[in-house]
Amino acid sequence: MSLINSLQWMIRKGFWNFIARRKYRSTVPREVTAVAAARSPVNLIPLNEAFPAIPIAGIRIAERVPSDEARVKEEHFMGSLARLSTIFSPMQAGRPAVAADPYQVLDEAYTKRHRQAVLRQAATLTVAPRRTLQSPTLPAELHCIPDLGMLALRGPYAGYLRKVSNRADEFEWNLESLGSYSHHADLYAPWAEVLFKAGPGHGSLKAVHIRCELGSIRPDDANWAFAARIAICAATTHTALVRHWTWTHLIGGESFSAATRNHLPPDHPLCRLLWPHMVGTHASNRLAILGQLVPEGDFETIYSLTYSGICQLVGKAGQDFNLRVCDPEEDARHRGLLDSGLPMQTYSNCRRIFRVILAHAERYLRLYYTDDALETDQPIRHWLAELERLIPNGLGLAPSPLTCAWLARVVARFIYLVSVQHEQFGTQLWNYQLWTHTHPVRVYRDGRRVPEDVYQRLVNSNYILSVVRSPLVQDYAPLALHEPACPDRQRQAEATFARFRLDLTRLQRKMERTPWAPWTLYPADLEANINA
């Protein structure tokens, strides 16, 4: 590597690291104490109409950012960066592979200045130490040869596990569909099908067969560890591009916010309940598109797929979306896991949080409605109809009379989407993706480790994903409807918001009685919305 080449990399790396730190420091959680009174309708249009350079028509986003969300300076800044990256890219061809020592690799990319920016932001925002970004922790299942059985039960990839039909002790990951999209020629295609078998008494799970581009691989084959890395590459590719970005941000987030803005007036009780969980969505998504989904953006330069492959994947991802994934028990039932007897730690973790959210939603709704009264509330009916129209496969619930319990489950699924699911498929990857020696985002055909420029962009992308947002555990009592004619109900609504905060805090304390784990989702770490 020539001296000039090394100097160019030092300048390039220093500049884009500075940009990443600036983005991190400039993101300030929005105080949600009131609902925007003046709101214009949100019109969703094909993504390629909003961004002609991005050939994706199968996804719809807001035609324009609502005025109360407008972040004109930030959008101009991100647009300028997108143009600059085509001239002075964060990538530099020919960079050597990262070092063999994963901790050395991390320290060279997640620099002292990155860490200082985190501490300064925490001090500026007076954020509790536990709410700040910590150095990544290597999960036990990634220490040596990846333990796919453990990854299938806990952590960000637990949602891929499903029971094999008519086989009592067999389960699978099926990520074969990713092989349909074009990938970079020097990389293995990021698709895999993994067969698991339950251990005695179903107390554990073990991967026994992997089918991928290498062929049909079993644990005693020489290529097993390599095949396991390809399987992880497939899982993390789908999680980042589909489950996090497309399902949570572009489909769930855009539809949820647009329907709420278009059909629930500011003084509608349901609007007050939902507002902190959808405010800022359209602006945030637009900024992220400019950094990640544009040509030569984060997605194309980090993951295995070519730009056309990514656009095809995102454009078709809506076909498989089902809001049921935001209801842990229903999702587990659909995947045939409820009676499996497996130690599904992530499922148990997510179910506990979902039940707190569901109880909060139903308590709140019953303050304002009886089941009969809901039948005559036209804004709610229009809101539900719009969601059924906008969301692929609808609300994911069996047809039912409109009751407080049924509506509470719809509401809980959306709050779960923007808080728990967004954390699980986004921020939680911080503790997984940066250990590329066993958890690769790319698998090179010649066996080499990822180049320095790919790894640095991966770190900065995850770093920016981990900005401080509005916490789920905060006081939303100011959003309670002001009702001079019904002061008791106003006080009860305020108490309901306070109860939600208390229930989350109690769950946090219970969870803290056991040792911290990188795969666990804690109430104190959850954000109220996807606004970045």
Our count of helices gives 18
Strand order of the largest sheet: 3-4-5-6-7
How much of the residues is beta strand, in percent?
5-15%
**Main beta sheet:** 5 strands, antiparallel
Low-confidence stretches: none
Rg, please? 23 Å
Gap from first CA to last CA: 38 Å
Number of strands: 7
Helix and strand content put the structural class at mainly alpha
Shape: globular
User: Which percent bin holds the helix content?
Assistant: 40-55%
Strand/helix succession: HEHEHHHHEEEEEHHHHHHHHHHHH
Arithmetic mean pLDDT:
94
Care to describe what's here?
This protein is mostly helical and 532 residues long. Helices cover 48% and strands 6% of the residues. The strands form 2 sheets. A 5-stranded antiparallel sheet has the order 3-4-5-6-7.
List the helices and strands and how they pair.
Layout (H helix, E strand, L loop, with lengths): L2 H24 L17 E3 H4 L9 E3 L9 H16 L14 H8 L2 H14 L22 H4 L10 E2 L6 E5 L18 E6 L6 E8 L2 E3 L6 H40 L5 H6 L6 H13 L4 H5 L4 H10 L11 H7 L10 H24 L2 H4 L3 H13 L13 H22 L26 H14 L21 H25 L21
Antiparallel strand pairs: 1-2, 3-4, 4-5, 5-6, 6-7
Helix pairs in contact: 1-5, 1-17, 3-9, 7-15, 7-16, 13-16, 13-18
